[in-house]
Amino acid sequence: MGHKNPDSDSICGAIxxxxxxxxxxxxxxxxxxxxxxxxxxxxxxxxGFEAPELKLSYARETVYIVDHSELIQAPDDIEQATIxxxxxxxxxxxxxxxxxLECWIRPVGCSNTVIKMMYDFYExxxxxxxxxxxxxxxxxxxxxxxSPTCTTADIRCVKELAEIVGIEDTKALGMEMxxxxxxxxxxPALDLVMRDFKDFNMNGNLIGxxxxxxxxxxxxxxxxxxxxxxxxxxxEKGNRHSVMLLLTDIMNEGSELLVVSDDITTIEHAxxxxxxxxxxxxxxxxSRKKQVVPALQKTFA
Length: 301
Prior knowledge:
With 301 residues, the chain is α/β, with parallel strands linked by helices. Helices cover 40% and strands 19% of the residues. Strands 6-7-8-9-10 form a 5-stranded mixed sheet. The longest helix is centred in the first third of the chain and has 16 residues, at 8-23.
């Protein structure tokens, strides 16, 4: 399974990894820890998959973790499970184990890029439908190969997976996915905030960071006050130090940051910015993983 509030990489990675495990005689089933996003639903429907089972308890289970290694993003009872392996592309988190485990962690743009490496290592042929969801996950996580997290490995995997699926124009596929992401009409503000929301423990401070990626920030013009109300509520109800929401414009390659915090100067210091009325534009910022979290963690440390 992937992390709480799963994104496309988390869901598609669980499905792709479960298939690989079964092919190498290690029986596995994909599960999820939360609701699917519209983009993930689009991907699964396009390639003929049902949503993985929603499963919240893993006590006495053996598990593989996909797309994170953070205790706070794992199932609440993960310490009662046996972690067999971790497949990830983020920083090493605070999950620990009492037994040896398999770790595939690479500094690439997407967990599905790492899973593609695993298929190659085990010499397992990737079915067309599995290749399709892996391709979409990489395009999503790398913002159609535009994110600063994107590597030559991601680009190579996109090319090879597209050949398996028979898709020539991967940019068009990526734009189709981001059009789905940009359709926010009639969606409650809280649902939008939580669509891709992660908590981070930064030196004892709980920091919540959400991200919404769209092709035009104007879609948020009418609902920004509602979004700000919801992040303020999440901060208070969750006893968080800060809650941040990135409104990312993939065409203009930047993000507007909405933030509520116990100490706004800490946030300003982390990025060398001045926040006015809880908002600031971050030029060139597309990646929460590479451009937002590390600077904040360094400041709190």
